[in-house]
Amino acid sequence: MLTRSVVGHACAVNDLDELTDWLTVPEAAEHLGVDVVAVRRLIQDHFLVAVRRGTPPVLSIPAGLVREGTVLPELPGTLTVLLDAGYDELEALRWLLTPDDTLAGSPLDALRAGRKTEIRRRAQALGF
């Protein structure tokens, strides 16, 4: 289960704070127009990715994963590729958010710009 696997990473997330704005699960639910249970299900089913941040640790979702009242459509498949490549949720999130000079932004920026195929190819290559 996702929430168990990210608990140990609470301190390791601090370096991501400068890369994105964060939403709590209730805030994400409000942005998506669903209840908290539905957001937790999206996280559990890897349609969204979340990590525990802060003290006390609070399950948090990068705001850039939610767009116009919905989960970024390119995200679930990309998460699947990253998880299949052996990344855990925190590593996948770090890869998505970290700027890459060859992309002129982060992989998440490229996904949001419609470059899904390129990003998934890169993610797939990480597993080899």
Task: Name the descriptors.
about 130 residues, disordered N terminus, alpha+beta, two-stranded antiparallel ribbon, 7 helices, globular, single chain
Structure commentary:
The protein is of the alpha+beta class and 128 residues long. The N terminus is likely disordered. A hairpin with a 2-residue loop joins strand 4 and strand 5. A three-stranded antiparallel β-sheet has the order 1-3-2. It has one domain.
How does the SSE layout of this entry go?
Blueprint (H helix, E strand, L loop, with lengths): L1 H6 L14 E3 H8 L3 H9 L6 E3 L4 E5 L3 E2 L2 E2 L3 H10 L4 H9 L9 H6 L3 H10 L3
Antiparallel strand pairs: 1-3, 2-3, 4-5
Helix pairs in contact: 2-3, 4-7
Question: What's a quick, concise take on this entry?
Answer:
This protein has helices at residues 2-7, 25-32, 36-44, 75-84, 89-97, 107-112, 116-125, and strands at residues 22-24, 51-53, 58-62, 66-67, 70-71. It has 128 residues and is an alpha+beta fold.
Broad shape: globular
Task: Give the beta-strand count.
Answer: 5
Helix-strand topology string = HEHHEEEEHHHH
> In the residues, how many domains can be counted?
1
The number of helical segments is 7
Round the Cα radius of gyration to an integer and report it.
14 Å
**Secondary-structure-derived class:** alpha+beta
Share of residues in helices: 40-55%
Question: What's the quaternary structure here?
Answer: single chain
Strand order of the largest sheet: 1-3-2
Strand content: 5-15%
Average pLDDT works out at 86
List segments where confidence is low: pLDDT < 50 over at least 5 consecutive residues: 1-11
End-to-end separation in angstroms reads: 25 Å
Largest sheet: 3 strands, antiparallel
